């Protein structure tokens, strides 16, 4: 059943109320944990029985576990709101009500989408799932309608470029994707084989807990060039050190003596595995150099 605007607004409001309640709960739990931590600190400075010390450590660990669980519940509510809004956006597009978005607004949306991508923080011993950071999708994975992907398409002069696109549908019988260029100035639809579509990460990897889920330094990748909707070949120069930081990448650029431009920041969402195109020497997205004026 289609999600009406009224129902969507109501569901979002319910989740916003849940988030507000959970935030207050997190604040209360943090104050309680601080009390126990202060007590543990004082105990460490005094000569108390080991059994009592163990009890204080246990209480602090329990406080941390409860706080973590509450934070994860709040993050899940945020994810639900994103899903509701995305469903409404897809319905509006299918109904032909998609609004024209100016270039500047589009670039801002691309940036915000990367900044608000859910952060995966693994629990001890938990494996990082596919499509988190640099972890690729499984071979049988099918991107969902509305998901952003990198798509290899032919340009005006038959050159191939990796562009930022959105999944319209997956044609199971043909094993092909129907995608649309997110650039409003293009509005191009493409039917592409599965091998010409790369799903983008659905979660950010946390460098502090899951650094192994990031691309190592000097890895050759494809990255979305800032203020464009095209992916170009690049090299990882610096990894993000915190959950809010981006990669720093070196894009190929023949105008520089060493063949690479100065480091530029690119969000985890838009750094993906490198795949060459037919014209590996061209300046097309993901295959060759990009000029510094791109």
From TrEMBL:
Keyword Nucleus found: yes
Domain called SGF29 C-terminal: residue spans: 139-280
CDD domains for the chain: Tudor_SGF29_rpt1, Tudor_SGF29_rpt2
UniProt xrefs under InterPro entries: SGF29, SGF29_tudor-like_dom, Tudor_SGF29_rpt1, Tudor_SGF29_rpt2
Residue stretches in coiled coil: 5-36
Keyword Cell cycle assigned: no
GO cellular component terms attached to this protein's record: ATAC complex; nucleus; SAGA complex
Localization terms from the record: Nucleus
Keywords: Coiled coil, Nucleus, Transcription, Transcription regulation
This protein's name: SAGA-associated factor 29
Organism: Musca domestica (House fly)
Lineage: Eukaryota, Metazoa, Ecdysozoa, Arthropoda, Hexapoda
């Amino acid at each position: 059943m289609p999600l009406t605007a009224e129902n969507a607004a109501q569901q979002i409001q319910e989740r916003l109320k849940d988030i507000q309640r959970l935030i207050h709960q997190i604040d209360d739990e943090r104050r309680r944990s601080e009390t126990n931590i202060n007590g543990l600190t004082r105990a460490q400075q005094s000569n108390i029985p080991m059994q009592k010390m163990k009890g204080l450590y246990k209480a602090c660990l329990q406080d941390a576990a409860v706080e973590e669980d509450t934070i994860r519940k709040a993050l899940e509510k945020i994810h639900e709101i994103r899903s509701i809004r995305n469903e409404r956006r897809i319905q509006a597009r299918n109904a032909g009500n998609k609004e024209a978005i100016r270039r500047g607004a589009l670039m801002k949306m691309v940036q915000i989408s990367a900044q608000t991508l859910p952060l995966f923080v693994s629990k001890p011993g938990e494996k990082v799932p596919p499509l988190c950071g640099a972890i690729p999708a499984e071979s049988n994975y099918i991107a969902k309608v509305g998901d952003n992907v990198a798509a290899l398409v032919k340009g005006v002069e038959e050159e191939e470029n990796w562009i930022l696109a959105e999944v319209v549908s997956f044609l199971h019988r043909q094993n092909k994707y129907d995608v649309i260029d997110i650039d409003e100035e293009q509005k191009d639809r493409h039917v592409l084989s599965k091998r010409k579509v790369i799903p983008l990460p659905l979660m950010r990897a946390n460098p502090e807990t899951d650094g192994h889920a990031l691309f190592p330094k000097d890895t050759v990748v494809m990255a979305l060039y800032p203020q464009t909707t095209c992916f170009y070949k690049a090299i990882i120069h610096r990894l993000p050190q915190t959950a809010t930081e981006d990669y720093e990448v070196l894009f190929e650029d023949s105008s520089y003596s060493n063949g690479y431009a100065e480091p530029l920041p690119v969000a985890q969402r838009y750094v993906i595995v490198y795949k060459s195109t037919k014209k590996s020497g061209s300046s097309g997205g993901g295959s060759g150099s990009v000029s510094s004026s791109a």
